[in-house]
Every structure is written in structure tokens, then in C-alpha cells.
Amino acid sequence: ERTWGASVGLSSTGGSSIPGALSTGGRERNAQFGTELFWRPQDWRGYGTHADLYVRTTGNLHAATGEHSGWPSVQLVFGARIKPLAEHNLVLAAERLVKAGTFTRNDWLVRAAYSATQGQLPPPQGRRWMAYDHYAEAGRYLDSGEEYAVAELRYGPNWRLGAEDARPASLWTHAVLALEHNNTYGRQNAASAGLGVNARWWLREDAYRSGRSWLELSLQYRAHLGGDSRNSGWVLRATWNY
């Protein structure tokens, strides 16, 4: 059973966050990073339920005019989360933000997330299948009063890369709908939709278990639907999950 894990995310967006809080939000296009290391105590594990303790860092590798990058933008986070339901991927989390860089903050964050996926892992046979990935998250920073919500829905055909007996890899072409809300922005809401492509390579597979780690590269173009334009345009992501 999994007792620990790690993830690294890189992104370039028009100012929105990576779902899952692996980045910080910005009002203009930034290149951002997020890292996380978690521990999953087996004594807290049930049938389809678990709890994690984790530490995360986020920051800007490159920032637009008026933003900050490098060490001054690094935010340190300590958190705990639970998955209380066996049949649904609902996650509740409480986090303590600790100021590391000069332009970050001390605060408390409580958040809830719900996700559903199907068709991400290649089936034993077949070269094409339909897949979807839906994610929604909402949170509140207790000291500052900032509130946010993000949602992303993706659906489309997934294609196997390579032979059926080779290491699982897939190319996912999909339509995407992205929604955001943040009560600290002048234009609080943002909506966009577009098309994207993901390349995913599954790792750490053996004769008894499917891939337990993966590397993914994602590119989307989103047209502005309404509200602010911060989540529209090109969205580039790279994610490694161990």
C-alpha cells in the first residue's frame, strides 16, 4: 500500500492556478512551480479512505511586470487532508501557509476538492477509448478573507502510444471548460473553453500492479467566454507524480 508520495508541477498560464493548489495565482502570465511531499499513515487508512500529512512549496520561476519571481515568491505550506468517502474522491484539507519569500504570507487555508476520472490508464486492449477528467475546488484563507473556486472539465478520445505490450503511454486529445472565482480580483469570475492535448507516460509498472507513477505534458488553448481573461489563452503544464 502507498505510504508516501511526491509531485512536481510546472505551468505557464495567463494568471490562473493549477488545480490542486500546486501553484500560486498571478494576475498576468507567469511561469510557476509547485512541489509536494506527503506521508500517508497506515493506521489512518480505511477501505477506500485515507489521510495525508504533507509539505508543499510554490513560487514563480518567471514573473510578468509587477510580479515577483525566484526566492521572494516562494510560499511554504504544511497541511493535512482526508478522503472520508470510499466511493467518491472528495478531499478536505487544512493548511498553514508559512512565509518563506519576502512577498509571500502567513495564513490559514481550508479547502475542499472533488474529482472524477475515467480512461486515463490504457486498457489491456485497444488503441482508442474515451476519457474524462473533472476537478473542482473551493477554499478560504482565514486571516485575509480571500475566497476562491476553480473547476476544470476535460473530455475526449485517448490514444495508446506504442505496442500493447509496451510500457503504458497515451495521447489524450480533449475539449476543456475552465471556470474560476476569486473575491480579491476586480473582475472576480473567469470562464474559458478550448481544446488540449496531453501526453502521459506511466511508470513503476510490474506484473502485479499497473503504473503507480506518471509523467504528463499538457498543452491547451482556451477561448475567453466571460468575466476576466486570466484563465484564457495558452496553458502549458508539466507534471511528475510519484
Descriptive labels:
242 residues, mainly beta, Lipocalin, 60% strand, twelve-stranded antiparallel β-barrel, globular
How many β strands by DSSP? 12
Strand content: over 45%
Helix content: under 10%
Domain module tally: 1
Q: Name the CATH class.
A: Mainly Beta
On the 0 to 100 scale, the average pLDDT is: 89
SS-based structural class?
mainly beta
Largest sheet: 12 strands, antiparallel, barrel
By CATH, the architecture is named Beta Barrel
Low-confidence stretches are: none
**Outline type:** globular
CATH topology: Lipocalin
- Element string (H = helix, E = strand): EEEEEEEEEEEE
Q: What is the number of helical segments per DSSP (H or I, 4+ residues)?
A: 0
> Taking strands numbered 1, 2, ... along the chain, how are they ordered across the largest sheet?
1-2-3-4-5-6-7-8-9-10-11-12
Distance, first to last CA: 14 Å
Description:
- It is a single chain.
- With 242 residues, the chain is an all-beta fold.
- It has a single domain (4-241), classed as Beta Barrel (Lipocalin), CATH 2.40.128.
- Helix content is 0%, strand content 60%.
- It contains no helices and 12 strands.
- It has strands spanning 4-13, 30-39, 50-62, 75-83, 89-99, 107-118, 128-141, 147-160, 169-182, 189-203, 213-227, 233-241.
- It has a 12-stranded antiparallel barrel with strand order 1-2-3-4-5-6-7-8-9-10-11-12.
- The mean pLDDT is 89.
